[in-house]
Amino acid sequence: MKIHTTQNLSSPALNRPTNIPLPREIRYTKYSDGMRSSEPEIYKGSVSFKGKKEIVNKAVEAGKKKFAERVADSKGLKKIFNSGSFGKLLETTSKQEVLINSGTALVICTTARPLTIMALPGDKNKKDCAFAAAHSVSSGVWGFIVPLLFIRPLATGYNLALKEAGKYIKDESKLVRMWPHLDTASIKDANGKRLPMDKWLDKAGNRFIPDIKDVHKVPLPKHISEISEKTLLERIPDLDTSKIKTLSPNEWVTKNGEKVKFDLKDIFIAVKDSESKKVQYFPLKHVTEDVLKEVYPELDVASIKAANGERLHPDKWLKKDGKAFNFDNNNIFISDWAETDKGIILVTGLKRKHIDGSIKDVCYQKNNKDEFSLGTPIDEEMVKADSVNTVLNKLGGWLPDLVVTYPRATATIAIIPFILKSVFGIEKSKKPKEDIPAQDAGKSGKVVA
Amino acid sequence: MNINSINSFNYSQNLVKQDGTYPKTNYGRNNNQVSFQAGKKPGKVSRFFAEYYGKHILGSDSMRKVSEFLAKLDKKGDVTRHFQTFGSLITSSAYMHSTLKNKEFDKDNALTLAVNQGLSFILPTIAAYTVDLAIRDINKQCEYAFSAAQEKKIKAAKLAPEAKQVAMEKLGKQLKGFRTLIGIVTFTTIYRYVAPVLITPIANWIGGKINAKRGSKPDVEHKIADKAPQTERAAA
């Protein structure tokens, strides 16, 4: 059974009573269930609501930026984030952690450390400083060569096996163990032959995404009154812009004098917790009925969907007394990259029970069929599998490195002083018998070697 | 058209020139490009290791169990940090073992030096985890900022759905790398630079204190005191 496909909020999954576990363990609770706040996690979307939920009908005041936000917002970092080489470095890091680790050590050991040693001689003579600097450089180089030659190919091999798991893992149960959302019926053609992984589907019927927690994010929504004319005109081409600065959004009209009507897919609402003052944004097209019931108590939620289950435009919504709902355009927030430099994880109010007992927002994978639909919801089972996958994938690269760490360190102790002396003629000024193994590696751990 | 059909070309686009809609943003400079090259075809060496290494690790029941165990221990997904620390522990153990079996040192002296080497692992490790925890929020905010900048570029590039999919998958990998990279840089900097320069003297001091409590002979203390600065400098 498909849990929840895209934008169909009338799906069985969403209409089930909350006390009955949902298929594939997606659970959601009412907003009033006393959500506990915790640090927002990028993929876990923890719930910040504690008190009563209120709809926001004006621009959300920008709170004072935290120190971390100011750092992230600095021009220098933005320049780095936009550089292509930084993106490549990150991509390489995701595939070759050991190599990047030893590469970082290489940079430090061949630049900062020897420079510091030479600049701060202390009570040492020049010969000892030169030895220490040369030892630093050689340990950095030696520590990079081993991963480059021996660990990198193994990590690459592991990554390839992972990327083409459909080819390398024949046992379907092992595939499901890694990816519980995988629809195993979709991985074979009519003749039973395995299809390429980009042809696979998940149980929700969406394109299969092996990176489970690659979540759908959207631009931070801004209140309608803060949106630029250009963005507004993209949505309402015949908007009469002459009075939008002076009139309430409820009074905005087109050039023909008709009341402005925003498309349902363009509308976000902002919901504020009366106690914590935190604000969450939901797309009106997908926000759960539980949230709507709480923020619009007079709304008849039965009136918000058509016979086919599709959500109707709020113009057609009714109150419980049967009268027109009259959606307040002041409630409209618009999400557009032209208006912000910040992104948020897309949530709809659907909840799941986390392994630690806490209630989390359900996030969605990036396999949405179009910009305004939802991808596969990430349930608890998927989250658990992903955390194991993450460790295993890292272990695929680190395991061979950890195996060779001890012999590599031993070789470092024996080889480096010998090479420095015999090849470069660099040695400590002390008598050889007082030499001790360089502490170097002791501190650096991974390091030297 | 499937994804593979666009693997072979590399697309880049200057957003401002093409789009021209975001003059107020900070992303309209020369670097403002989005590229999505899906990667080279794997070579024979990669295939070999995929067949004889990757496949077996990926499908191994015991490796899965180990990973499940480690995943339970590490709720934050920072397992890279722990691997770095574990590698450091092994390396320090190698050095301690080497010191203890070195016949050139007398027993007391070797033990004190080994304790010093052990402390040279423990103190930087505490420092590394402390710093990592302290900058966690900055790391997260930077990741958000990077993610938003890239998504913004991808959106503005108005890519075809298949190309957008490749670009988004690439971004997913980059975000994973982002989380890992900060930890690697933090731990490696502390282990490889801060520890030798700042922490070794502390470890030497503690080692000396331990030695003094053990009632070392004066000549041994003298030797250790003589070695401490050397050790520090050599490490630095």
Furnish the topology, listing elements before pairings:
The complex is a heterodimer of chains A (449) and B (236).
Chain A: H1 12-15, E1 53-55, H2 67-72, H3 75-81, H4 84-95, H5 97-119, H6 126-163, H7 165-168, H8 172-178, E2 217-219, E3 222-223, H9 229-235, E4 268-273, E5 279-283, H10 289-295, E6 333-334, E7 343-345, E8 351-353, E9 359-361, H11 380-422, H12 439-444
Antiparallel strand pairs in A: 1-4, 2-7, 3-6, 4-5, 8-9
Chain B: H1 15-18, H2 44-59, H3 61-73, H4 79-100, H5 107-134, H6 136-156, H7 161-213, H8 218-235
Could you please describe the fold and organization of this structure?
- The complex is a heterodimer of chains A (449) and B (236).
- With 449 residues, chain A is mainly alpha-helical.
- Chain A has helices at residues 12-15, 67-72, 75-81, 84-95, 97-119, 126-163, 165-168, 172-178, 229-235, 289-295, 380-422, 439-444, and strands at residues 53-55, 217-219, 222-223, 268-273, 279-283, 333-334, 343-345, 351-353, 359-361.
- Chain A contains twelve helices and nine strands.
- In chain A, the strands form four sheets. Chain A has a three-stranded antiparallel beta sheet, with helices on one face. Chain A has a two-stranded antiparallel ribbon with strand order 2-7. In chain A, strands 3-6 form a two-stranded antiparallel sheet.
- Chain A is elongated, with a radius of gyration of 29 Å.
- The two termini of chain A are 53 Å apart.
- Chain B has a domain at 75-235.
- In chain B, helix 4 (79-100) packs antiparallel against helix 5, helix 5 crosses helix 8 and helix 6 packs antiparallel against helix 7 (161-213).
- The longest helix of chain B is centred in the last third of the chain and has 53 residues, at 161-213.
- At the A-B interface, helix 2, helix 3, helix 4, helix 5 and helix 6 of A face helix 2, helix 3, helix 4, helix 5 and helix 6 of B.
